[in-house]
Specification:
globular; 3-stranded mixed β-sheet; P1 Nuclease; 11 helices; binds zinc ion; 5 strands; 245 residues; two-stranded parallel ribbon
Length: 245
């Protein structure tokens, strides 16, 4: 399928696939069985990017704003002005209700499942919880190792892809690094995940005025984005276990 690379993409394909691959490790047998009924033998890693692929299909135009949310500094989600087209927090709540409702059609529940795998990933990408003044860093033009990029893209894919690891190789590295802490992260509340994404804002925006990013920025941020990928995987599983387990 051809699809347009929207300006506001999300964890690139590698990042999303890592979250799906990690989630597979934490599913209960019952949740796994119910997932297989909806998506057959496809892995969560493979379906994790479907919500970006459908961005070029006009039938899904109404989903474009579900990938992110704006929460300015010092505000809670409840205090923010809500986007009438939806946001990632309300979408996770709403799609969760569709997925667990057995009176819904299989096709509605399958779409909800594939979207949830994607959106739980997105909400863990810190720049998908935006400050409200720069479209989640999309408006901050930077140089990444001398090439034109923007801050959002550095976080979605430039840093992750610079290792040139496959998603399974990178999953293995992240899982080894963080598996012993995974039990601390079992949570199913998207508000909690969004507030975690807001916390490192100052660090993420702390770079020189020339906005030339490379090794130094990458090494400073690496633990953080790898942690967020791991947490996203653990939470995809926690959510699916609670809805389908
Ligand atoms: Zn997305």
């Amino acid at each position: 399928m051809f699809f347009l690379w929207s300006k506001a993409f999300s964890w690139g394909q590698t990042g999303h696939r890592i979250t799906g691959e990690i989630a597979e490790k934490y599913l209960t047998p019952k949740a796994r069985k119910n997932i297989r009924k909806l998506i057959g033998d496809q892995s969560l890693a493979i379906v994790s990017t479907w919500m970006d692929e459908i961005k070029s299909d006009p039938r899904y135009n109404h989903t474009h704003d579900w990938h992110w949310v704006t929460i300015p500094d010092g505000q809670t989600y409840e205090q923010t002005e809500k986007n009438p087209k939806g946001d990632v927090i309300e979408a996770i709540d709403r799609l969760g209700n569709v997925l667990k409702d057995r009176s819904q059609t299989d096709s509605a529940r399958r779409d909800a499942l594939m979207m949830l795998v994607h959106l739980v990933g997105d909400i863990h990408q810190p720049l998908h919880v935006g400050r409200g003044d720069d479209r989640g860093g999309n408006d901050i033009r930077v140089r990444w190792f001398g090439q034109n990029s923007n801050l959002h893209r550095v976080w979605d894919s430039d840093m992750i892809d610079s290792y040139q690891l496959s998603y399974t190789e990178y999953t293995d590295a992240i899982y080894r690094k963080y598996q012993h802490q995974a039990h601390q992260w079992i949570s199913t509340d998207p508000r909690v995940w969004a507030y975690e994404s807001m916390q490192p804002r100052d660090e993420i925006y702390a770079f020189d005025r020339d906005k030339s990013l490379g090794y130094l920025y990458h090494y400073k941020m690496r633990d953080l984005y790898e942690l967020r990928l791991m947490q996203a995987g653990v939470r995809i599983a926690a959510l699916l276990n609670s809805l389908l387990g």
